[in-house]
Amino acid sequence: MKMNNCLFETPKISIITICYNSEKHLEETIQSVLRQSYKNKEYIIIDGGSTDGTMSIINKYRQQITYFVSEPDKGISDAFNKGIRAATGDVIGIINSDDVLEKEALNCMAREYDPSVDVYRGICKIWNDRTGFVFMEYPTLNWPTIPIKMRGAHPSTFVSRCAYERYGTYKIELRYVMDTDLFIRFSRNRAVVKYIPQVLACFRLGGISQSDEKNVPTS
Fold first, then answer.
1. pLDDT tens column, 140-196
2. What residues contact residue 214 under an 8 Å CB cut-off, 6+ apart?
3. Residue 87 class from Cβ within 10 Å (0-12 exposed, 13-18 middle, 19+ buried)?
4. Fewer beta carbons within 10 Å, N or C terminal of the chain?
């Protein structure tokens, strides 16, 4: 099979976007997923019951979205878990409504696919769209056993569905360090981690993890 220019297709890749009153950047996020030329993919959007223009944006692309639900949830972790339960892919990525997939990211992910790998970690571009500040975050491949708060290059991380089934999903009681907790759990259970030397996603500064909790749905 050809593997030139990241054109190797094998696994089904599920992409999940969770959102709540996300009209400001959601369309850019959706477009970054739909523009991926990789064919064996599905796109899942979990909305927490938005009351702004989020629904009109989603409806604009509804025919290209594999699975969609809009209903109150118990927070970010609950929304993540809803998406994971709906996913049918071999590998699952989460791109939140402030962030974007880089061009051809899914082709590059597919080229590195190995059924024995639990977690794939690519390079993440960190971007402040107000100041123009950009830097590249290279992923941690090993996590400490002490659950401290740390940035995990979450948008450029892909997890096998089998790993979620084996080690569990996100803890609903955690609001901001749910990804750190998950990564530590992977490490404690000696999950197999693979580094992908490509920029796979862009993380926009100023999202939920840097803002006040009042805008996050809790019920």
1. 777 665 444 445 578 999 999 999 999 999 999 988 788 888 998 999 999 999 999
2. none
3. buried
4. N
